[in-house]
Every structure is written in C-alpha cells, then in structure tokens.
Specification:
With 397 residues, the chain is of the alpha/beta class. The chain folds into 2 domains: 2-249, Thiamin diphosphate (ThDP)-binding fold, Pyr/PP domains (Rossmann fold), CATH 3.40.50.970; 257-386, Rossmann fold. It is built from 12 helices and 15 strands. The chain has helices spanning 8-21, 40-48, 62-74, 85-100, 125-128, 143-158, 187-193, 217-249, 275-288, 306-312, 333-342, 365-376, and strands at 2-7, 29-33, 54-58, 78-83, 106-111, 136-139, 166-171, 179-184, 257-260, 267-271, 293-298, 300-302, 318-323, 350-355, 385-386. Strands 3-2-4-5-7-6-12 form a 7-stranded mixed β-sheet. The N and C termini lie far apart (58 Å).
Length: 397
C-alpha cells in the first residue's frame, strides 16, 4: 500500500479499475464510458488501465454507457461506470432498469448542478433525482472515503443477500479535482477483499433465459417486495463488509452514519458530503466554548439509515438539516427523509431545513455559524431557510 497525493477522480478511477481487475479469474470486467465534466478524468483513468480480462467501451452517450455496463453485468462480468449531472439524467432509463434487473453495477456519481442554466459546480440534485430507483447511495466526504467506499460497494452489491447496484457520490471539484493524501491499496489486497463474482441470474450461451420480459401484476409485486427485503438487509451486510475491509486494508472505511459529539448534544447538525468537514470543525470549536452541539454525517442515503439516525440524536431537542440539494416546492431531500425518520418516534424534536451550497455555493464556517444562530432562537420549525442568497434590489421581471 502506498500513499500518494491524488485527486478524488483519480481515487475513484483507481478503485473501479482495481476492482475490475480483481475479477480476472472469473468472468472479467467491462464498462461503458462517456465523458462529462467534472467526471471525465475517472473514465480516462479507467480507459488506460491494463485489464488482464476485460473491455472498456467508449460510446456515444451516457445512456449507452450504462447499456454496455448492463450487458456486461448480465453476462456475469464485474461492471461499472461513472457520470454526472445531465449525463445521469440522460442515463436515467437504464439506471432504473439496472436496479430492477438486480445487476450489481457500481457507478461513481460526481455531484454537479443540473442545467439549465449551465453550471459545473457541486450540487447533489443529480444523484438525488434517482433516489427512488433500486440503487444504494453513498455520499463521500473526501478522496480516501470515495476510494474505500467504491471498493466496499462492489462487495456489498455482489453479496447474494443484496444484489443491487450502488452509487458512490462526491462533490464536484471540492473532491473530484482536489488533491489529497490517499492510501492506495495494492492489487493483491483488492484481490483478497473482492471474491470472484458469480452472478446467480447471469445469461448463459447454452441456456435459454429471458430478462425483463412481461410479468403479471402479482409477479411484479413480488419482485418489488424482494428488492425491499434486500434493502432492509443492507445495514447488517454493510457492517460485515466494513469489518472485512478493516481486516484486509488495515483502516476503517467508516460507518454508514457517522457521529461527532452527539452523546449530550442539544442541537445536532445533520450533514452529508464535504459539508461535514467544515461543520465538524465548527462543532469542535463550539464544544471547546462549552456549547452542546453535535454532528451526524449521513454517508448512506439509500436505504435511509432511520434507526441509526434516531439513536444518534437521542439527547437532541433540535436538528438542523443542511441540504446541498433542492426538490422543487418541497425543500431539501435529506430533510424530507429525516422528518419521516422521526415521525411517530419524537414529538418534541424541532427539525429545521437549511438549503446551502446549492449550485456550487461555498459552505463556510460563517454559514454554519449563521445556521446555528438561527436554530438557537427557534421555538418551532418553519419553511426551509435559504442560505447565501444575494438579496440585492434587482429582481427577475
């Protein structure tokens, strides 16, 4: 294992490539690739990787990139791809199909603002628009976490108790193009961690099978129920994958829900992605000044870790949910699921939404301080609060 100063895109490309190579003694690996800023460096890295048994297929669109990965996975290969923003929107039909086919594809999503107007900076709206598809979703804070979580994602997706695709997500530029010290595992270590893929429902040349044919309503309902049961197994299987990761690589890839100073906190910040880095330092300073403030970082968004979140916030009377995303007319997506998680469990908890960092806006310590100042004086929750909005006199006519 070596430590190198690399970008988040490099870390993701390294994880995808070494995971694919680890399946060389089975059905190999394959993926479809298509460039889009700020994800392009990932597929460039993958395209140059000297796979022993596999193909990287450049295609004409994101829709086709997922189609190639689907075909590879159906044949039993370890498959993956990467995309961002409007590329994910164009890919959406096949993203949906992948989940319902129960194909354990891993995709890295570099979170970028959906246009128009065109914007290449960080916003989680692109992957979160896919939140109701049968995919697991993880939101990563830094380069090491994107590498580790992507490797773990293959083991989790391919476990026969799960067999669902996984997205590992990172903030555009803040992670994708920022260089940090990152521990890169040797190929032999990745080989130890990822067993050969043996997909139980893969297509065989000498055996007639149909995938995606017409199903009667009761058959379709049964399949949806099976997906729901697999989703419920994810937290326990994740922990198994996490323990195996620590044994092989000697470091912890992190829990699906990560806490800081929550044991006696009155106010808890609920965050995801790179906002966690800034918010954690604000909480650290506030704690040193005697304030009972804590933080929960939601690494896993799908399935939503309701039980873990409730346990982490037992002492809190107020939650400030910070969303780098927006569902039109409905506020932040993490906020919606957080409220649902506590419904019927806590009537005394004030849960306030703060929309911040959208469209690439900076989430600075001052922004976090303003959020804490606002929630400190609240006696009841209100509409989502927009942070960092220019309140100049000019308005759209």
């Amino acid at each position: 294992m070596s430590v190198q100063v690399i970008t988040g895109n490099h870390a993701a490309g390294y994880a995808l490539s070494t995971a694919g190579e680890a399946n060389r003694n089975a059905r190999g690996t394959a993926c479809g690739i298509y460039p889009i800023t700020p994800q392009t460096e990932i597929v460039e890295y993958v395209a140059k990787f000297p796979f022993s048994k596999g193909r990287v297929v450049p295609v004409e669109s994101e829709h086709s990139a997922m189609a190639v990965s689907m075909g590879a996975s159906m044949s039993g290969a370890r498959a993956f791809t990467a995309s961002s923003a409007n590329g994910l929107a164009y890919m959406a039909e096949n993203i949906m199909v992948t989940g319902y086919y129960r194909l354990p594809i891993v995709m890295v999503g570099v979170n970028r603002t959906l246009g128009p107007p065109w914007n290449i900076w960080a916003d989680q709206g692109d992957t979160l628009m896919l939140r109701d598809f049968a995919w697991l979703q993880f939101y990563c804070e830094n380069n090491q976490e994107i590498l580790d979580t992507t490797l773990l994602a293959f083991r989790l997706a391919e476990d026969r108790r799960i067999l669902l695709p996984v997205m590992t997500c990172m903030d555009a530029f803040i992670v994708s193009h920022t260089q940090m010290e990152t521990s890169l595992p040797e190929q032999a270590e990745v080989d130890r961690y990822l067993p050969d893929l043996d997909l139980p429902h893969r297509m065989h040349q000498r055996e007639a099978r149909t995938m995606g044919g017409l199903a009667w309503p009761h058959e379709g309902l049964s399949m949806r129920l099976e997906i729901d049961e697999a989703m419920k197994r994810v937290p326990a299987v994740y922990q198994e994958c996490r323990e195996s990761f620590k044994e092989v690589f000697g470091r912890d890839p992190g829990d699906m829900t990560q806490t800081f100073a929550t044991d006696d906190a009155d106010v808890v910040l609920v965050v995801s992605g790179t906002m966690a880095t800034t918010a954690r330092e604000v909480v650290r300073k506030r704690r040193a000044a005697g304030e009972k403030i804590g933080l929960v970082k939601l690494k896993m968004f799908r399935p939503y870790p309701e039980a873990a979140l409730r346990e982490a916030c037992q002492s809190a009377t107020k939650l400030a949910v910070l969303d780098r995303n927006y569902a039109a007319g409905a506020g932040g997506v993490f906020w919606q699921d957080t409220r649902a998680a506590f419904q019927g469990h806590r009537d005394d908890l004030l849960i306030q939404n703060y929309l911040t960092g959208l469209c690439g806006g900076d989430v600075t310590p001052a922004v976090i301080d303003d959020i804490l100042a606002d929630i400190a004086v609240r006696e009841e929750a209100g509409d989502p609060v927009w942070m960092g909005i220019d309140t100049g006199e000019e308005t759209l006519q």
